[in-house]
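Tokens in:
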């Protein structure tokens, strides 16, 4: 006993334990054993106090039986035990020698013993009944426990459903934030209102918790004059393979790398230089690494160090995916001219030996004969010796290279053939934009259009806007917006609109010259026949470049115009122009720029946003291109055949085209070569889908200057048949663009396939 307990005992202080409301089974057993032990001790003392003769009473055998059995008694509660103990004490006190006279001692003792014995015998007699009662109560408790367990199962199910609902809600909000690029401040504001005002207590208060934003300091590396963060080539390729669900039969993949810079601020030189990657044949783009600084990287080897080290291992050992090792090959390294010069460590693209494909030497042309200042380097020769991978690595033309070597040469790929001329920068916002600029705002030397001609072309472009299909991301607009035209608009001008708009506006010889450019690019963008007709396109492009001197002067033959002659060789090596163009990469660059909210610490912001996107994973799998026809927009007022029984639709999704029954999405090429306008989409009761269409009766060529336009499915149609014809939906060859060739229209329409068949 401690000193404190001893002191309390002397002072009469007793600390009573707090009575428990609910007593467990083990505690009940301990209390029963303790009570039985006390009763045994008390009975033993009573027996010793009895006279000797009484111990030989015939009831002793019964007493032994009674004394042993009470251990099975189940006391009701603690108060009952205390009452029993008090009763025994009172009985013992009454029978003790101190409280009775000597003459009455024997009688009193005998009577008390008999009374105690009778009470215990009565206790024993009632034991079976009490045990049965206890067993009944225990069964009742067990039944209640089973009922409680069923209740708990129901509660667990409802709890589980509630948790799933909360998880889905949080996931949905997070996906919405990522997909719509909502500013994180607004997200936190919304979460606070939903949690406190709407009672959604399971939502966090901060967007960083919802989006699992990286809290620690980002891992970056110094690349003078800025910093670089690497995300990994292998991780990126694995995510692309999972996204596209690459088939198990595939044993080899080709990758397309892209390096380019993008300004992220208007008031400073702050800029990103991302390293991007995609799998050849797919548009999904991922970030391998990103550099930020106020100038481009000074040392390219520090910039692409991790990329080259990872690429060497992957290209040599392959990529482990899905229990197999995939062979990896670089299909192309796509860069614009300045980025290509940086990555390959060669002289600037406007230097005398700046051409990456051939060893031509540029010619300096002054801006004016009367001035000794100003001018540019031009490249009029089209038949100079071509560079090879060996000549590049051995530096046979030293004037083309800078002093230091780029570690990109350590990668096992053809550094000349696999670094193509970029179609987007070279053709769309290069040669095409240059021609349009010359016609609109060039010198008044016979090549510039008059004001009335520019207005006429602008009005025509605005007029045919209603005929542009839904697949075109941008509609046509006036030439007054020429400085603001995007690359995709210049592409559409070259492939579809200007060959019609300029007919009868440009001089015929200039128009025929422009058709050389148009036809050759039309060939090289054809997904089916680009390699077959690439050599013919090369002849047309060389003639176009040589004739540019005649129409626009020697100064016109800039780097972009000269590199047109190298496009066919790139197409033969890699594929059609769209298969390796910079369009998907430029879209990715714009999305990267949109992730930045403030000018402070843009690289850290970029890293955190990328990690958030990886955590949320809004696009786990690519949308599957279904071969089945999906119809939509039911209607009942279209033309039908007399015996038709089924449903009519206004639109359908057929492969990667959206085809309807109204302009501008109702023109198609059929597999018999005819052009038809769809008037109704029918689905019969047996599920068969057919189209009700009218065919054009007359087809003419748009031009025959270099090659008949009919050979490339560019035709002028007229005289629509008055009768309807029924065709199976799979009789459609491809969707077409159709617009009138004059304003106002004269019944003749230009028609060309969106995807050439």
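Residues out:
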């Amino acid at each position: 006993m401690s000193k404190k307990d001893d002191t309390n005992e002397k002072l009469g202080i007793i600390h009573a334990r707090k009575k428990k409301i609910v007593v467990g089974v083990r505690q009940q057993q301990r209390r029963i054993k303790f009570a039985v032990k006390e009763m045994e001790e008390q009975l033993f003392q009573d027996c010793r106090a009895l006279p000797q003769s009484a111990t030989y009473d015939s009831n002793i055998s019964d007493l032994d039986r009674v004394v042993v059995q009470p251990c099975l008694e189940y006391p009701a509660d603690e108060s009952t035990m205390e009452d029993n103990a008090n009763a025994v004490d009172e009985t013992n006190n009454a029978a003790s020698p101190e409280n009775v006279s000597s003459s009455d001692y024997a009688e009193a003792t005998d009577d008390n013993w008999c009374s105690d014995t009778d009470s215990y015998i009565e206790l024993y007699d009632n034991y079976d009944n009490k045990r049965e009662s206890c067993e009944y109560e225990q069964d009742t408790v067990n039944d209640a426990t089973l009922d409680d367990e069923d209740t708990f199962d129901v509660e667990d199910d409802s709890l589980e459903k509630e948790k799933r609902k909360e998880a889905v809600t949080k996931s949905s909000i997070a996906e919405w934030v990522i997909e719509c690029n909502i500013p994180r401040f607004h997200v936190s504001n919304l979460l606070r209102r939903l949690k406190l005002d709407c009672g959604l207590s399971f939502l966090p208060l901060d967007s960083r918790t919802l989006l699992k934003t990286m809290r620690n300091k980002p891992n970056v590396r110094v690349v003078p004059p800025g910093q670089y963060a690497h995300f990994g080539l292998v991780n990126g390729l694995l995510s692309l393979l999972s996204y596209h669900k690459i088939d198990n039969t595939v044993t080899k993949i080709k990758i397309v790398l892209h390096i380019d810079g993008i300004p992220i601020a208007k008031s400073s030189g702050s800029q990103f230089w991302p390293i991007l990657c995609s799998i050849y044949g797919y548009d999904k783009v991922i970030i391998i690494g990103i550099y930020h600084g106020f100038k481009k990287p000074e040392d390219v080897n520090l910039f692409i160090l991790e990329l080259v080290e990872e690429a060497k291992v992957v290209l040599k050992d392959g990529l482990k995916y899905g229990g197999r090792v995939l062979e990896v090959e670089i299909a192309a390294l796509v860069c614009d001219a300045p980025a290509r010069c940086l990555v390959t460590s060669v002289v600037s693209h406007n230097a005398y030996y700046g051409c990456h494909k051939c060893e031509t030497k540029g010619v300096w042309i002054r801006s004016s004969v009367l001035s000794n200042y100003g001018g540019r380097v031009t490249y009029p020769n089209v038949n100079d010796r071509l560079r090879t991978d060996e000549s590049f690595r051995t530096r046979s033309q030293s004037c083309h290279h800078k002093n230091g070597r780029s570690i990109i040469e350590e990668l096992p790929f053809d550094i000349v053939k696999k670094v193509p001329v970029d179609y987007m920068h070279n053709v769309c916002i290069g040669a095409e934009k240059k021609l349009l600029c010359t016609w609109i705002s060039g010198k008044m030397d016979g090549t510039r259009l008059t004001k009335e001609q520019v207005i006429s072309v602008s009005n025509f472009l605005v007029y045919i806007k209603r005929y542009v299909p839904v697949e075109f991301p941008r509609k046509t607009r006036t030439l007054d917006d020429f400085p603001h035209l995007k690359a995709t608009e210049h592409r559409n001008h070259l492939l579809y609109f200007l060959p019609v708009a300029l007919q009868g506006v440009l001089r015929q010889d200039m128009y025929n010259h422009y058709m050389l450019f148009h036809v050759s690019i039309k060939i090289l963008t054809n997904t089916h026949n680009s390699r077959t007709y690439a050599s013919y396109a090369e002849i047309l492009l060389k003639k176009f470049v040589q004739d540019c001197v005649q129409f626009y002067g020697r100064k016109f033959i800039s780097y972009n115009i000269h590199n047109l002659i190298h496009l066919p060789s790139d197409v033969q090596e890699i594929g059609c122009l769209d298969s390796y163009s910079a369009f998907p990469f430029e879209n990715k660059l714009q999305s990267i720029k949109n992730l930045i909210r403030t000018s402070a610490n843009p690289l850290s912001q970029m890293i955190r946003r990328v990690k958030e996107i990886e955590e949320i994973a809004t696009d786990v799998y690519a949308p599957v291109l279904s071969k089945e026809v999906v119809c939509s927009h039911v209607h009942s007022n279209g033309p039908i055949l007399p015996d038709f029984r089924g449903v009519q639709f206004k639109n359908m999704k057929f492969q990667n085209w959206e085809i309807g029954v109204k302009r501008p999405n109702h023109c198609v090429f059929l597999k018999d070569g005819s052009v038809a306008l769809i008037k109704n989409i029918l689905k019969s009761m047996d599920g068969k889908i057919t189209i009700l269409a009218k065919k054009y009766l007359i087809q003419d060529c748009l031009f025959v200057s270099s090659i008949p336009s009919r050979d490339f499915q560019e035709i002028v149609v007229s005289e629509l048949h008055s009768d309807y014809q029924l065709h199976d939906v799979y009789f459609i060859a491809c969707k077409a663009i159709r617009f009138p060739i004059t304003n106002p229209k004269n019944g003749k329409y230009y028609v060309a396939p969106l995807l050439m068949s």
